[in-house]
Amino acid sequence: MKKTMTYAVLPLVAVVLAACSASPAGNDYDKAAAAVVASSFQPKGIVSLDNLKQDEANRLCSAADVAGKPLDEKTTKAIEAAELKTVKMPSDGKFLGDWKAGEKIAQSGRGLTWSDDAKTVNGGNCYNCHQISKEEISFGNLGPSLYNYGKTRGVTDPNSPAAKAIVEYTWGKLWNARAYNACSQMPRAGHKGILSENNIKDVMALLLDPASPVNK
Amino acid sequence: MKQAVVYRSAFVAVALTLGAGAASAQGNAALDGIAKYREMLQDGNPAELFEMKGEELWKQKRGPKNASLEQCDLGKGPGVIKGAFVELPRYFKDTGRVQDLETRLITCMETLQGFKGEDIAKTPFGKGEKANLVAITTYVATASKGMRFNLPQATDQEKTMYEVGKRLFFQRGGPHDFACSSCHGVDGGRIRLQDLPNLTKNPGDGIGFAAWPAYRVSNSQMWSMQHRLNDCYRQQRFPEPKFGSDATIALGVYMGVNSKGAESIVPAIKR
């Protein structure tokens, strides 16, 4: 895992060097911001100061947001390639779990805040941003609607060869959304350890199982 | 206290209405119900109790020096409170810092009354002098009710804090990669049914930065901007911003400058 990461970062370093032509004023403000971050936070509960550390993808996407212009194509592709390498396919080759368990994960936004403890079961935060099943009317809109996710993509049997591509893409998207969209706002649920492999299987079932209310 | 009970039972009534409306598509009935409830509370906003307590504390001789805060300079001269809030945070020469209303009040509690600012900052929200500070903040802010935000950006310190705040606003981090901008960077965004102001620009009168301090119905607490930011960072899975830290001030400058022209409706009322 660690090795994959090290190699994955290499192409990014080159890109970063190339992008280092920001105005001196911008650099000064970057330094001022770094100093403010360093002096302003304190650990609390289960959350340590490590949470402030940015990986390259976050650093680049944050800087692009500050600049108000999207990353260039080369940087975008480099991030996506590096993130794609972090995706771990299911160890037993099974992509789908239980949609009912998936619904519970999608409903929960808990876990990993300083008011949670280490025993808190992490949620997927899915309904915070997405419509998913039709029964739940309290959903956010920062992400696209996922109602009928499998149905509209023609998935009638998730185990069939015809469904393979969409099943694998969906797994990858849940594991690390930024493998497909460099600066996506969606958390990297598998890559960052928010959800386990089994959790992701259950959310997969919620989205792709023809028996799931999502596809009714 | 009696008043609080009345508000709670009103809340139950509305909650029942919400339940009944839950079957409608996309919960318009629920949203209407919340709006109606907020309107109801505007007639007797519990925040007024905090404002009254704050006024008393402002005028009362307190602290080791047994003095009131009436000579506190909030940026418009000693004792001037009207219009002060809508120009904060701003740079203060005497402290050499950009300060928001809360940190500036702590400076006055130190210099005029002899309190130890560090102790106040470390006191948990809702307790002791921190609770008093929120009441005073509510009182001073309410003196600018109906006025429009117009933060100064004349000094290098203020300009730098705006730029630092902008960088903090877009800073992705933690296990979820959340930044302030994850929720507050687009128009018309919602988490579940909660509307989210776009804080990268003026989101409108009484919205976003212009809606705090506010009374929060869900937990019956009066929240200042410091408290609001603290809870945002909790949900972002970031470590805790120290009370009055430069990160919180910089974000205040960023949101406040972006809100130029927005009317302050303080004390606001929130779900």
UniProtKB/TrEMBL annotation, chain A:
InterPro entries in the cross-refs: Cyt_c-like_dom (IPR009056), Cyt_c-like_dom_sf (IPR036909), Thiosulf_SoxX (IPR030999), Thiosulf_SoxX_II (IPR016823)
One Gene Ontology MF term: metal ion binding
Signal peptide annotation: 1-18
Keyword Cytoplasm in record: no
Protein keywords: Heme, Iron, Metal-binding, Signal
Ranges for domain Cytochrome c: 97-211
NCBIfam families: thiosulf_SoxX (TIGR04485)
Protein's name according to its UniProt entry: Sulfur oxidation c-type cytochrome SoxX
Native organism: Hydrogenophaga aromaticivorans
